[in-house]
Amino acid sequence: MAGKIEIITGCMFSGKSTELLKRLKNSYNKYLLVKPKIDIRYDLSSVSTHSGKKESALVVGSVSEVFKNLNGVKIVGIDEAQFFTIKIVRDCIELKKLGFRVIIAGLNKDYLNREFNSVTSLIKIADETTKLYAVCNICAAPATRSHRLSKEKTKILLGHKNYYEPLCKKCYNNVR
């Protein structure tokens, strides 16, 4: 079986995790769902969507930790790819070489509209890329930006609708 790397990307609230879970469920193959240790927003050991869907996941500090958990698995699903280091690229290439279908969901850009290196690098090697859009909170146009509502300046601020909102390019530029 030939391996494959699929990327699902977009701004916050665009449905990336929902799409990841849908693809895993629709595959009818045994899969391993993975999430980074840093993501503690909704549940410590599950991938949770903003709409409330939830699925148990292997919690790892690095994607390389999955290699000892692949017995019988055909697909590896990775959520919140932006929280992994650039080593995720090497690990996904190795999984593909071993014949796994790898489905990865992650933010393409941060709240300052700067790319996440891990996700940008994954897009470059992907066999398939799906870009999703949210709905702009101001004008209802397709949203491509994650606007931080909080004044906190750290690059990573775990949060949801209390901390971020999706905006289109025009509205994002108007509020900045």
What does this structure look like?
The chain contains four helices and twelve strands, in the order E-H-E-E-E-E-E-H-E-H-E-E-E-E-E-H. Helix 2 runs parallel beside helix 3. It has helices at residues 16-26, 87-97, 117-125, 169-175; strands spanning 4-10, 31-36, 46-48, 54-56, 58-60, 75-78, 101-107, 128-132, 134-135, 142-143, 145-148, 164-167. The protein is of the alpha/beta class and 176 residues long. The longest helix is centred in the first third of the chain and has 11 residues, at 16-26. It has a six-stranded parallel beta sheet, with helices on both faces. A two-stranded antiparallel ribbon has the order 3-4. The protein has a single domain (4-133), classed as 3-Layer(aba) Sandwich (Rossmann fold), CATH 3.40.50.
Order of H and E elements: EHEEEEEHEHEEEEEH
| C-alpha Rg (nearest Å) | 16 Å
Number of strands: 12
Arithmetic mean pLDDT: 89
Name of the top-level CATH class: Alpha Beta
Strand content: 25-35%
Which class best fits the helix and strand makeup?
Answer: alpha/beta
How many separate structural domains? 1
